[in-house]
C-alpha cells in the first residue's frame, strides 16, 4: 500500500481545487485540477480545461499513485469553474424574465404542434399538457411530471427535441 493510499480523507481534501502533478508507476505523470479523491480506492479525479470551454476528466487509480505535488492553489473563480463541471445545465439560475420567456416559447411550440396546453397555478408558472402532465420551471424534460409513464416519456422526448432544436 502506497503512502497516498494510507492518507485519510481529511488529508486528501487538502488537494481538492488545486492544480497538481501526479506521479504514477512506470514514471508516468498526470497534471490537472483535483475535483475529488475517492475515499475507498484513493483514486484521484482530475479536470483539465481545453480550448472552447471543453473539459477533460481523468481518473488516476489510487493504487498507481506514487506521489502528488501541488503546483497551484485554486482561486474562487477556479473553484466555481470546477464545481460547475458536473452541475446539470438546468441547475443554472434563471431570471424571472428568462423563465417567462422559456415558458411562453415552449407553450407556443406545443400549441403549434397541436398539443393542448394551459397555464396552471396562481401565477401561471406551471404548464399543463392535456390535463395529465405538468411542466414546471425551468421547463425542461426533467421538470415534467405525470402519473402516466407513457405520456410522460413521450412529452419529455418532445421537450428534449424542442430544446435541442433551439440550440
Key words describing this protein structure:
167 residues, alpha+beta, 4-stranded antiparallel beta sheet, 5 helices
Give a short summary of the structure.
The chain has 167 residues and is of the alpha+beta class.
Which sequence of strands runs across the widest sheet?
A: 4-3-2-1-5
Shape descriptor: elongated
Discrete helix count: 5
Number of strands: 9
Main sheet attributes: strand count, strand direction, barrel closure: 5 strands, antiparallel
Structure class? alpha+beta
> What's the order of the H and E elements?
HHEEEEEHHEEEEH
* Strand content bin: 25-35%
State mean pLDDT (0 to 100 scale): 91
Helix content: 25-40%
- Any idea what the radius of gyration is? 23 Å
Distance between the termini: 49 Å
Low-pLDDT runs of 5+ residues are: none
Polypeptide structure, described:
- By secondary structure, the chain is of the alpha+beta class.
- It has five helices and nine strands, in the order ααβββββααββββα.
- The protein has helices at residues 3-6, 9-13, 76-83, 96-112, 149-166, and strands at 18-24, 28-37, 44-49, 55-60, 65-73, 117-120, 126-129, 133-135, 144-145.
- Strands 4-3-2-1-5 form a five-stranded antiparallel β-sheet. It has a four-stranded antiparallel β-sheet with strand order 6-7-8-9, covered by helices on one side.
- The longest helix is centred in the last third of the chain and has 18 residues, at 149-166.
Amino acid at each position: 500500500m502506497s503512502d497516498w493510499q494510507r492518507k485519510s480523507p481529511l488529508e486528501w481534501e487538502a488537494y481538492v481545487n488545486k492544480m497538481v502533478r501526479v506521479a504514477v508507476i512506470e514514471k508516468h505523470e498526470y497534471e490537472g485540477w483535483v475535483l475529488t479523491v475517492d475515499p475507498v480506492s484513493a483514486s484521484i479525479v482530475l479536470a483539465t480545461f481545453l480550448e472552447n470551454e471543453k473539459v477533460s476528466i481523468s481518473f488516476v487509480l489510487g493504487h498507481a499513485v506514487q506521489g502528488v505535488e501541488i503546483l497551484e492553489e485554486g482561486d474562487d473563480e477556479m473553484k466555481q469553474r470546477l464545481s460547475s463541471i458536473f452541475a446539470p445545465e438546468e441547475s443554472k439560475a434563471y431570471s424571472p424574465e428568462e423563465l417567462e420567456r422559456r415558458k411562453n416559447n415552449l407553450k407556443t411550440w406545443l400549441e403549434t404542434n397541436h398539443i393542448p396546453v394551459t397555464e396552471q397555478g396562481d401565477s401561471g408558472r406551471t404548464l399543463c399538457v392535456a390535463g395529465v402532465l405538468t411542466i414546471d420551471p425551468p421547463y425542461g424534460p426533467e421538470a415534467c411530471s405525470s402519473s402516466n409513464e407513457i405520456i410522460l416519456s413521450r412529452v419529455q422526448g418532445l421537450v428534449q427535441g424542442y430544446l435541442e432544436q433551439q440550440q
